[in-house]
Amino acid sequence: MKNRNEQAELDDLDRELLNRIQEEVPLVKRPFRALADEYGITEGEALSRIRRMWDLGIVRRLGPILNYPAWGMSGVLVAAKLNPDRLEEARAAMQERPEITHAYLRDHDWNLWFTVIAENEAARDAIIERVRERAGLAEVRKLPQLKSFKLGVRFET
Amino acid sequence: MTTDREFIDAAAKGFQLESAPFAALSRELKLSEEEVIERLRRLIAEGKVRRFAASVRHQPLGYAYNAMVIARAEAELLDRVGESAAALAAVSHCYHRPHPDGDPDCVYIMVHGRKSETVEEAIETIRRLPGVRSLEACYSTVELKKTSLSGVSTDLADL
Questions:
Q1: Residue in A38, A26, A111 with CA at minimum distance from that of residue B54
Q2: Is the C-alpha dihedral spanning A107, A108, A114, A115 positive or negative?
Q3: Beta-bridge partner residues of B91
Q4: Which one of B38, B95, B114, B136 would you mutate to disrupt binding with A, by most A Cβ within 10 Å of its Cβ?
């Protein structure tokens, strides 16, 4: 029986399509026909290859990637020190706010890392403060991105 | 008249994989498909949308080993450290952020591999880059949450 990783194997064309569509999907009425034309395949084949990657969970969304500050929204990465005894309270605090999008425990002195994106800076900070109280976080630091050198994954073909 | 905000709230829910993906939103907002496409193009031109694209998860491809590396850099070499780390194939995201302890000159580097050796090799390469003062490699132990806000892609690097 094949394991999950083997099932998720992609061929070179899949990887080229994946690299292409995470950079840009053409803004035309039939974007997959436009993509198919670039690779000399049919629209149906382009769609079925991308649909397979969607079903495998590799492609998870198709849509606009927003520049949040341009909409007045405010997002930030936060590092904090969580007492491991209060993990469940931290988890509950994360779950109750949709504005908290990712949260991880890491093996570091700063063991709790999460991202918040909210309607504005005040709302963002209120959410961080609420998590700090509920989970009893000893220390909390906002870590603004000062510069981006790379954004996204390229899959080797 | 649909405001940009109403438009983007609807568009941010995401599009279906179908041959005419803009048709559903055009029906919902009572705009033509051309108007939907034009609006997206304008929002990109205005910098309110970075791009129209697919969001990708790498774990299903077997990239099971992940580390967040925090490299403390000499201030004048920080950009070179960031650019060199970003050029590595195993690196997905790379950005300048302060350390939680207050050190402003850190490069955060997300490293992924299908094998632990790939991740370890990339970390050793980063450790030897000129300008790296010291390095911490943190592995995630527990994922507490991973979602998208209203379907909006919120990769760590976007924030």
A1: A26
A2: negative
A3: B111
A4: B95
Report residue B74 as tokens: 């000499």
Largest CA distance in chain A: 58
Q: Are A78 and A116 in contact (CB under 8 A)?
A: yes
Predicted model pTM: 0.79
Write out the E strands in chain B. Answer: 49-56, 65-73, 91-97, 106-113, 132-138, 140-146
Which A residues 111-130 touch B at CB under 8 Å? 113-117
pLDDT tens digits for chain A (157 residues)? Answer: 344 444 568 899 999 999 899 989 999 999 999 999 999 999 999 999 999 999 999 998 999 988 888 998 999 999 999 999 999 999 999 999 989 988 989 989 999 999 999 999 999 999 999 999 999 999 999 999 999 897 766 665 4
- Is the CB of residue A88 less than 8 Å from the CB of residue A134? no
Secondary structure (3-state) at B137: strand
**B156 φ/ψ angles, rounded to the nearest 5 degrees:** -50, -40
- Phi, psi (rounded to 5 degrees) for A33: -70, -40
Rounded to two decimals, the ipTM of the complex is 0.80
